[in-house]
UniProtKB/TrEMBL annotation:
Enzyme class label: transferase
GO biological process: purine nucleoside catabolic process
Annotated ranges, domain Nucleoside phosphorylase: 16-215
SUPFAM superfamilies: Purine and uridine phosphorylases
Naturally occurring in which organism (per UniProt): Silicimonas algicola
Binding site for phosphate: G20, R24, R43, R87, I88, G89, S90
Family recorded in the similarity comment: Belongs to the PNP/UDP phosphorylase family.
Active site residues according to the UniProt entry: D204 (proton donor)
Protein name: Purine nucleoside phosphorylase DeoD-type
Gene this protein is translated from: deoD
Length: 233
């Protein structure tokens, strides 16, 4: 057990899927895993471990934002030995070609800052995905036929952004979408020599204003979960 995770040693699989929403963790575990069992509920941050096609998998909520994800990913790596970590999140579309419900696979995650910023100081570290996971996810997405975009995303510290000028520059430079965790996930994976990827479903759009309701964000992102599982194994 750690400060934030109540699981016993051995309760967490080497492969961990990481939704921000703990209820999405419950939905995904009950929908995709065989024999899912609850292994964490400290602070309501639900985690389940089961198997997918015979492979052990944990699905663990991270909460919203990089400081929250950083706590769980640090403990999952250091105390439970997680080796492959795949975020299954939602994002806001930032290109006209990226539609609501499309999938975005994050090759890089630009950011203004992460909880790791203090160790980099003047260095603009470029958080990037694990290549083997990225390639496997892109292939799985292509085989599934779902509209998928692979490229750079933006990991923001705020949901209610007050910098339309920055959004405009990122759109201009090809950023596909915005979310709030991937940059720190990629940085921690690099530091600890683990594999990480973020696969996102577009839940709303910064240019069109379209948005899905919270129930859809909790329960309707099955294609992303399937792609994550196929990429992991
Ligand atoms: O749907 P999740 O995985 O939580 O991801 C996105 O949704 C939250 C904001 O609504 C942030 O955590 C953002 O990254
Ligand atoms: O962080 C996020 C997630 C979804 N949609 C957004 O606009 N921002």
């Amino acid at each position: 057990m750690t400060v934030h995770i109540g699981a016993e040693p051995g309760d967490i699989a080497e492969t961990v899927l990481l939704p921000g929403d703990p209820y999405r963790a419950r939905w995904a575990a009950q929908t995709f895993l065989d024999a899912p069992r609850l292994v964490n509920e400290v602070r309501g941050m639900l985690a389940y471990t089961g198997t997918w096609k015979g492979n052990p998998v944990t699905i663990h909520g991270t909460g919203m934002g990089m400081p929250s994800l950083s706590i769980y990913v640090n403990e999952l790596i250091r105390d439970y030995g997680a080796k492959t970590l795949i975020r299954i999140g939602s994002c806001g579309g930032m290109q006209d070609s990226v539609k609501v419900r499309d999938i975005v696979i994050a090759m890089t995650a630009s950011t203004l800052s992460t909880p790791s910023r203090g160790i980099f100081r003047e260095l603009n570290f470029a958080p990037c995905a694990d290549w083997t996971l990225l390639r496997a996810a892109a292939r799985a997405a292509e085989a599934s036929g779902v509209a998928t975009h692979v490229g750079g995303i933006y990991s923001s510290d705020v949901f209610y952004d007050e910098r339309p000028d920055l959004t405009e520059q990122m759109t201009r430079h090809g950023i596909l979408g915005v979310e709030m965790e991937a940059a720190e996930l990629y940085t921690l994976a690099a530091r600890h020599n683990r594999r990480a990827l973020a696969i996102l479903t577009v839940s709303d759009h910064l240019l069109s204003g379209e948005a899905l309701p919270s129930e859809d964000r909790e329960r309707s992102f099955g294609e992303m979960v399937r792609i994550a599982l196929e990429a992991a194994f």
